[in-house]
Amino acid sequence: MPITSIDQLDPNGTYTYADYLLWQFSERVELLRGKIRQMSAPSVKHQRISIRFSRLFANALWKDTCQVFAAPFDVRLTRTREDMNVTTVVQPDLCVICDRSKLDDRGCNGAPDLIVEILSPGNSRIEMRDKFELYQEAGVLEYWIVSPTEKTIQVWKLNEQGYYIGLPPVVEGDLLGTSIVPNLEVNVTEVFED
Description:
Distance between the termini: 47 Å
Largest sheet: 7 strands, mixed
Number of helices: 4
Shape: globular
């Protein structure tokens, strides 16, 4: 039986990527350890910030082996290629992928090198705790959490033991870069301009 409405799903059920591929409804969802997370449309402020980051990353990665992708873009956080065993599918605001073997027609299968998530009202706990843990476990090398309200960027880098180490918050007036994208220079003040 085709799933054409999110109401047909059990909100307490556990699902896999194989299930996710069969859903035919328009709502955006993610799977976090098999649990459905509905996503609302981003605000205008969120979209402005996302587009600015997209432009900066795309320009810095022009003709590079790494590529940047913006939501909606499925990232399957798994170490397997079997859809029935994948229980986490996220749609980060932006992600940088340097290993092209992780890319297929449906998105990314494995951990991106860098993920940027922009906080919105109602998603702070998910981005700052749930996805933080998922990205750390999956081996995402850098995780940037962007707060439009505070106008800050928190950068987490994966250490050799597989745990995130937080850098001092990046604030307006600062420039931000990363070794993953050597040509990237983010002027934080410009990112948050209205």
